[in-house]
Write a structure and sequence with these properties.
The chain contains three helices and ten strands. The chain is an alpha+beta fold. The strands form three sheets. It has a six-stranded antiparallel β-sheet with strand order 1-2-3-4-5-6, covered by helices on one side. A two-stranded antiparallel sheet has the order 7-8. Strands 9-10 form a two-stranded antiparallel ribbon. The protein is elongated.
Length: about 170
């Protein structure tokens, strides 16, 4: 994911609870952002841009790529938001746009690119499914197909084709 900053021209909330904000850019576009599950007011878009609301208005917050203070909370290889509780960017986007994490599930990057934390690239999967998908992505790369250039539908079709059956569910 190539991180291109967004210049905010104006913004407005869609309701009184301030959970959804419409951001109007200087280039004439409009983006919708939702409130992240953080203590401080943080909003994120579907493509992974973060905005902080302060008394000065809505400002874009860039992720931190430095080593976190507590490595047990956050892995060093993932971009994270230090000022919002050391939460990784992909987890904040997934919790905001996909929904709460089911018990025992992990957040998976469909195309295997850890720097692409857009909501279209994330999905909740079991740890076993996450490992299997990682192996399939390595095989795709070894035969010359770049998963980052494939569409979400193509990747899901490949994952479904090689889906394994859980022995515990067999009657």
């Amino acid at each position: 994911m190539i991180y291109k900053p967004i210049c905010v021209d104006a913004y407005g909330f869609t309701d009184e609870s301030q959970t959804v904000v419409r951001i109007y850019t200087t280039k004439g576009g409009m983006i919708t952002a939702k409130r992240c599950p953080t203590i401080k007011p943080l909003y994120c878009t579907r493509d992974g841009h973060f905005f902080s609301l302060s008394r000065f208005g809505l400002n874009e917050v860039k992720p931190c790529f430095a080593v976190p203070k507590n490595p047990k909370v956050c892995h060093t290889r993932y971009p994270f938001m230090r000022q919002f509780g050391n939460r990784t960017c992909h987890m904040l986007v997934a919790l905001t746009w996909i929904g709460p994490r089911p018990e025992g599930y992990q957040c998976d990057h469909l195309n295997g690119d850890m720097l692409d934390w857009s909501a279209d690239n994330l999905q909740w999967v079991t740890p076993a499914e996450n490992c299997k998908r990682a192996k399939l992505l390595r095989v795709l790369r070894s035969i010359g197909r770049d998963p980052r250039k494939m569409s979400r539908e193509e990747l899901l079709e490949i994952f479904n084709k090689y889906e394994f059956t859980n022995p515990q569910n067999i009657d």
